[in-house]
Amino acid sequence: MNCIWDYVDRTITSLHFSPNATEAEPTSWLLSGSLDETVMVWNVDINPIEVCSLSNSAFNAVWSQDHPNDYLLAAAGTDNRIQVMSSESDKTIFTTEEESPDTVEKCVVSHDTTMVAWFTQSGRIKLLSLKSKLVKVLGQHPDANLTVLKFSPKDVLLVSCSLDGSIKIHQVWQPNDKCVTIAGPKMKVIDCYFVENEESLLTCGSDGSIRLWNVKNGEPITILLRSLGLDVICIDRTLDNLWFAQGTISHGLQLFSIRLELRKALRQPTRLGFQNSPVRICRFADHIQYLAVGYDSGLIEVFNYTRNMLVSTLEAHQSWVRDLRFVSRSPYFQLVSSGDRIAWWDLNQTQPNSLGRGGNLHPVANGSPKVASSAGSSSGNGHLHSSAHHWSSMKTIHPELVQTLEFQGRFASQIFPSQDGQVILTVTDSGILYILRQLVDF
To answer: For residue 321, is pLDDT > 70?
Structure first.
């Protein structure tokens, strides 16, 4: 007999196995209820995942614009080989051949899903063409501590930034391997964005300064926002590059506005909220004027950023909130958060300042709570272990918190939901790839 979960201090009041379609079919699910009104669904017919080898930091996924539920994801294994998986087969479709002691720290997929780029601990930058299956070295930073790697929106440029402020812009798959180097201020670059038809690069420093650079020659254009002495650890912007938000260690969330055509900031940073905890993630919604802010305390605040108004306070996490993603096309939830667990939030049900701690349905599989998911091992053989439970039953209990998912490991750093929210991808710190699917349409 195997113990699939320990309730610790919870008193179980009921246990029920799921019915079988046929007598020969084994039971897959166990439903348990406890005295504190917690309901859990356990997958009792799943093989243990013994090999966990994916990196949760060197992991990236891109969704198809034409087919909303089609994705391509890439991740590095402990052997530092890049594994590429497609939604068409739900298994690994390509793995780089070379094993290396040089740790892969970050990888990104191009918008058109034809290329994968990554950088290593030594500062080397590599590029894989999924069409030709060729890998080439684009270059190497003198400072090996890289912080940013991303493709331009047209996928013709690749930018990398390092801890010492140096920036390199590569032309991908060009015969002459042209590279433009920007010698910025000696500070960490938190993030950067291609703007003005990819002719300019906007960079955000750890001191809060915003600078604009010429992509063709690497020359500075202007300083849009000077340093205010902030200790910035994350940044996000609206798609029109009008609003920016900076998360800091000791100054909360800073909101400001920039007009690129005027080459100046229209509004100096204004602090939103009154939390003293560091802000590790902030995210603008693309379809509504909302800004979600995640704190190291586990709290999430949602603001209407055009009115400086707190819309909701969300509580489900017990530690750092590491990622936030808005979902624009789901009728059941509009925000997904990750950290020590994954939580789905229905913001349509909220009133200002109304959301509190709630929701106690934690679907479980293989000894730890899971939900509507296929949890794939990262061993590179493409074998997937599946578990499932439809994820909307909590709406009748707590309409604001739709569902939570607890997984094997301490945290999930990044989540990638489809636009309709029916599929969510993540890798936990234990190295397990989770493919979470909505099973039933209501």
So the answer is: yes
